[in-house]
Amino acid sequence: MVMAAPAAPSTLYPTPRCNSSGNIVPFPANPFKRSATLLDRPFRQALRLAATVPQAVSGTDQQTNVLSANEEGDTIRRLQNGSDVRGVALEGEKGRSVDLTPQAVEAIAESFGEWVMESLGRESEQEMAKVRVSFGRDPRLSGPALSTAVLAGLSRAGCLVFDMGLATTPACFMSTVLPQFAYDASIMMTASHLPYTRNGLKFFTRRGGLNASEVEDICDRAARKHTTRRMGLGYTGSVPSLTRNNVDFMSAYAEHLRTIIKERINHPHHYDTPLEGFKVVVNAGNGSGGFFTWNVLDKLGADTFGSLHLEPDGMFPNHIPNPEDRTAMSLTRAAVLEQQADLGIVFDTDVDRSGVVDSTGAAINGDRLIALMAAIVLREHPGTTVVTDARTSVALTEFIAARGGHHCLYRVGYRNVIDKGIQLNRDGVETHLMMETTGHGALKENHFLDDGAYMVVKIIIEMVRMKLMGSREGIGSLIKELKDPLESVELRMNILTQPKHAKQKGAEVVETLKQNIEEGRLRGWHLDACGDCWVSDGCLVDSNDTPVDIDAHMYRARVSDEVHGQHGWIQIRQSVHNPNIAINMQSSMVGGCQAITTTLRDEFLLASGLEEFVDISQVDAYARSGSLG
Known about the structure:
There is one protein chain. The protein is α+β, with helices and mostly antiparallel strands. It is built from 17 helices and 24 strands. The strands form 5 sheets. Strands 1, 2, 3, 4, 5, 6, 7 and 8 form an 8-stranded mixed sheet that branches. A 5-stranded mixed sheet has the order 14-13-15-16-17, sandwiched between helices. It has a 5-stranded antiparallel sheet with strand order 18-24-23-22-19. Helix 3 (102-120) packs across helix 7 (212-230), helix 8 packs across helix 9 and helix 8 runs parallel beside helix 14. Strand 10 (343-347) and strand 11 (354-357) form a beta hairpin.
């Protein structure tokens, strides 16, 4: 019997670990030329080529190898998470196996490097060598091993790699902008607020973060690359020299933030230390945000005694680093009151989101944070449009309108919200603020970048300005007129299918709801619209000449009845993180959300037979009891 020759591995290190001496393991070079690379051809052509290569395997073994390789390629495609890549990097999650492997990360990083070269029009070997890509990571335990994979992939693509070490997502983008660095592109390794077992990648060029369709293209390239290599097609050539160029970018980024604060406050008595006399508590959640305390606030004169969880710890032992997390916000509120601080700050893991606590201990996140930022921005730019996701309240729309602003409700997803703001500005609609209820917030003045640290910088500047103007009130006074919704509920329905089919089934459920609403099967339900920014069909579809690609299906509907008139809204959407469907609703009447949920269950889910595809147990329980407990 002839033994099967082992397929060439996709990487030279089989497990997510560095070798015992901590050295970087070398990788073979990419043998393909841009004009005729196998990975850029249709996959069926690769299969035909595989069939012509002499194989010392049986027909059954060869078919099994092809099917296995194809499955692994599909796994890489499923790592796409909207405009990011996310997956399980460490064992420990029940029911989830590791899919963000070093091999997958290497292929994705290499594909990104090639994509950057193409977007820059780099063709010759000499030009390719000039492509400079920075790379940072949060403190997750899987970071060091996966960093080696990123370095290998980018190096094989022909990029020069600059390792920023522990960094933040906004800093990675800013490394492409600040003149003394000005890298061509950047990658941040993080999974934001997800558990320590997860990790992921975010991608930037000088024009900003990549959108979902661009990341889909990169993951598809990586999947085909990985598949052809697993089939033994594509590992020849010399081993490239891997060079890790270490750079201290975070110090330069912190100095950039300090300069903004000093210049805009322009303190009449102590210009270089404008935060003297202010107490500020920071909760970094053991993520990457500790730098803001000792490298920004302390150097500007603030008293930061009592700050929480500043040291990076990839296990996140105290709480999830997330401004929406109740534990994180509760601990920060308690610290603010104990220290009699003027402000509390909560960062997520990679500091692209933030929330704050005012001097009274009141939490400011979600709609309240959007309202606070809208109040600040509308004072600076009267009449501007504010773009948010469509989970915000009617009261927030009224708050913005009362200050002369315009509110554009749009699709959930921070990249969607930001891209909508960019599009509106391009179409002549002045839009200075784009925010999601999760705490992602971007400003036109800051490269349309969702930067939790910059958002806090704006709030700090306003806090000092108010005191210099003689106000004795804290920043919370700016939103005292914002009304909270009487009822607000979020429910989830897990999709009952294999993970590879979950996205399609989720889209079917959401689209079926839209069809039922349009056909009048749910009485009193009407798809929402936002005429000022050319958004129709439930705040999903762009009706202008340059619509944005849809990365997940979602719709928002206004809900009314004969007795109360319009009393609430509901939004149903695919989750871009997990195989489930999220349902958000708000109502201005007692029992309104329970009534909306009952209609959803009886007149849509059960009437359409969709309980076969989704787990409606949470919906059913809330419809019966009106309680989430």
